[in-house]
């Protein structure tokens, strides 16, 4: 698929040169001449396939995408190592209708338009019927994904259906309600799922990796239903105006929405293809594995390492350390017994003098901490250490750097190209969605079973009762807190936390106040002392539950209703 993208770029350049010699353009052009793309002689659909690849390009990525930072740097789990970064607009009150580092409105509707153009024209190409069926379903899925990207940011948005607008059409469309947009996405997922490839089937070969499979349609439906059932959207909107509230969520609560999450999670499980990888590390570094349902494809590189690893490594392994995970995130990881580090239980075993010893193994695969072995030496994030030298050098503000998504370079002296495909959907997320919904309908014991599966894979010890640190007789409320924390650490930096704290309506608690870091001092006996510091102060107001519709869109369309507070 990646090779096809490079071929597409060459093809576009050639056509542009040819067209430029022939005539002057007198109208906007979406791509190239329609007769060249939708060729009734192209029995293999070669050029149409290039167009579909361009539709795929609208699938969002997540690595360092907000001005060079992760979106999680606005979620309480990290802060930017550099000063005055745009991602901080979400936590310092600077975001506005004119100043949003991740508006995504135009990008999503461009993706919708590209999908509609493809769907309107692909039947002109005399290619194999089965491949055409797959391609149509893939385009419709991408269109649905674009609408979800809009929905989670803004609430209900204008639904354009299959229409392809020209400059002479009336573009002043009103917003659809939240319910209408959810129904549209779910209906589309159900409509296309059986027309997509099964990853376990004969029609999904090695060259198809990255193509949208049936599981992705079910996983998108599952996530949309999870959001719909959550407190913010399930009758819990903050808006005072009932009409606006219907745009950003359901007007009233319905417990059955949690059952829909359970149903779609079980539907995906019934495919009997996806499962948890034996190793948490392999999820992100093994290019093709059965935990990944869909990922954004890219070429092999070591950009994640260069952008995020500790700053004290010079050429040939120079790194910029852009992401500083907070001590709040680090403290969320339990001990390897599954017991929280702040637990009063004597079984915890947490030692403040050796804070990273015997912790949940996922901690060491998510953050770099002082003493971590990397590129053949210990990471030094103590004051004056190689990776926290002081002065004006960009460096960690919290005592930690981002480790997740990287291959194991512990004994290497430089980086090498790795598969860094950003995961959009994976099986562990579906289990977490499932556990959350089960708990909300009162099936807490069954929810515990799902969390045990995730903790077992993470390397948490079973314990004498095989509960993996989960207390016997845990209540629904206690289990809710545990699931939310499990989701935080399992899915860290995968662009879930920013949206999770909104849908749970916990963002005011998480983001109004101080975020913590750790100041580490090296003592004369080579031991270390650890002190909690204030790394950043953040703010959250109710209007930040939903993003502002861009000012340029509001001024062009008198029928667009702005979200409350903007």
How would you sum up this structure, described in words?
- With 566 residues, the chain is mainly alpha-helical.
- It is 39% helix and 8% strand.
- The protein has helices spanning 2-22, 34-37, 46-56, 89-92, 105-121, 129-154, 178-192, 214-229, 242-248, 256-269, 280-285, 303-308, 327-332, 361-364, 427-440, 444-458, 476-490, 497-503, 507-511, 551-556, and strands at residues 78-80, 292-296, 323-325, 367-368, 373-374, 377-378, 401-402, 422-426, 513-522, 528-538.
- The strands form five sheets. It has a two-stranded antiparallel sheet with strand order 1-3.
- Strand 5 and strand 6 (377-378) form a beta hairpin.
- Helix 6 runs parallel beside helix 8, helix 8 runs antiparallel to helix 10 (256-269) and helix 15 (427-440) packs antiparallel against helix 16.
Write the layout of secondary structure elements.
Layout (H helix, E strand, L loop, with lengths): L1 H21 L11 H4 L8 H11 L21 E3 L8 H4 L12 H17 L7 H26 L23 H15 L21 H16 L12 H7 L7 H14 L10 H6 L6 E5 L6 H6 L14 E3 L1 H6 L28 H4 L2 E2 L4 E2 L2 E2 L22 E2 L19 E5 H14 L3 H15 L17 H15 L6 H7 L3 H5 L1 E10 L5 E11 L12 H6 L10
Antiparallel strand pairs: 1-3, 2-8, 4-7, 5-6, 9-10
Short account of what is shown:
The chain has 566 residues and is mainly α.
What is the count of DSSP helices, taking H or I runs of 4+ residues?
20
Total number of beta strands: 10
Order of adjacent strands in the largest pleated sheet: 1-3
Gyration radius, in Å:
24 Å
Major sheet details: 2 strands, antiparallel
Residue ranges: pLDDT <50 for 5 or more in a row? 2-29
The end-to-end distance, rounded to whole angstroms, is: 41 Å
**Class derived from helix and strand content:** mainly alpha
Content of β-strand:
5-15%
Proportion of residues in helical segments: 25-40%
What pattern of helices and strands is seen along the backbone?
Answer: HHHEHHHHHHHHEHEHHEEEEEHHHHHEEH
Assign an overall shape.
globular
Please tell me the overall pLDDT: 93
């Amino acid at each position: 698929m990646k090779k096809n993208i490079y071929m597409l770029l060459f093809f576009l350049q050639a056509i542009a040169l040819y067209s430029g010699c022939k005539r002057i353009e007198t109208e906007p052009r979406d791509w190239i001449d329609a007769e060249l793309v939708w060729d009734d002689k192209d029995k293999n659909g070669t050029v149409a396939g290039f167009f579909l690849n361009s539709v795929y390009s609208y699938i969002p990525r997540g690595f360092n995408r907000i001005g060079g930072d992760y979106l999680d740097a606005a979620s309480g789990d990290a802060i930017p190592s550099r000063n005055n970064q745009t991602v901080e607009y979400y936590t310092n009150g600077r975001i506005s209708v004119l100043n949003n580092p991740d508006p995504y409105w135009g990008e999503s509707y461009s993706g919708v338009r590209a999908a509609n153009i493809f769907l309107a024209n692909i039947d002109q190409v005399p290619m194999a019927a089965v491949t055409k069926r797959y391609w149509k379903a893939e385009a419709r899925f991408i269109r649905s994904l674009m609408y979800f990207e809009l929905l989670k940011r803004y609430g209900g948005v204008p639904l354009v259906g299959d229409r392809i607008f020209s400059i002479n059409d009336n573009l002043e469309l009103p917003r659809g309600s939240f319910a209408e947009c959810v129904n549209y996405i779910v209906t589309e997922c159900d409509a296309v799922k059986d027309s997509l490839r099964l990853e376990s089937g004969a029609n999904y070969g090695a060259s198809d990796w990255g193509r949208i499979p049936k599981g992705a349609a079910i996983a998108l439906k599952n996530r949309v239903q999870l959001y719909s059932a959550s407190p913010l959207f399930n009758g819990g909107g903050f808006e005072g105006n009932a009409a606006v509230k219907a745009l950003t969520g359901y007007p009233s609560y319905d417990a059955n929405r949690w059952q829909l999450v359970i149903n779609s999670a079980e539907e995906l499980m019934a495919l009997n293809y996806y499962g948890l990888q034996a190793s948490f590390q392999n999820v992100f570094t093994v290019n093709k594995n059965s935990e990944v349902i869909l990922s954004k494809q890219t070429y092999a590189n070591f950009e994640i390492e260069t952008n995020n690893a500790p700053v004290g490594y010079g050429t040939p392994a120079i790194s910029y350390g852009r992401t500083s995970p907070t001590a709040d995130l680090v403290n969320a990881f339990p001990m390897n017994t599954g017991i929280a580090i702040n637990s009063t239980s004597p079984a915890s075993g947490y030692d403040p003098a050796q804070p990273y010893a015997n912790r949940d193994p996922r901690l060491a695969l998510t953050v770099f901490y002082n003493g971590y072995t990397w590129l053949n030496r210990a990471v030094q994030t103590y004051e004056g250490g190689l990776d926290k030298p002081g002065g004006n050098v960009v460096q960690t503000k919290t005592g930690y750097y981002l480790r997740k998504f990287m291959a194991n370079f512990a004994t290497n002296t430089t980086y090498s190209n790795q598969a860094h495909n950003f995961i959009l959907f994976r099986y562990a997320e579906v289990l977490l969605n499932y556990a959350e919904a089960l708990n909300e309908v009162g099936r807490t014991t069954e929810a515990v079973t799902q969390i045990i599966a995730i903790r077992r894979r993470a390397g948490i010890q079973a314990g004498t009762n095989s509960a993996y640190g989960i207390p016997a007789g845990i209540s629904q409320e206690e289990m809710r807190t545990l699931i939310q924390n499990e989701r935080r650490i399992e899915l860290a930096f995968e662009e879930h936390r920013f949206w999770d704290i909104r849908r749970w309506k916990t963002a005011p608690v998480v983001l109004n106040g101080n975020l913590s870091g750790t100041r580490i001092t090296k003592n004369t006996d080579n031991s270390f002392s650890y002190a909690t510091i204030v790394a950043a102060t953040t703010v959250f107001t109710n209007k930040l539950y939903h993003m502002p519709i861009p000012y340029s869109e509001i001024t062009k369309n008198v029928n667009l209703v702005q979200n409350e507070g903007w």
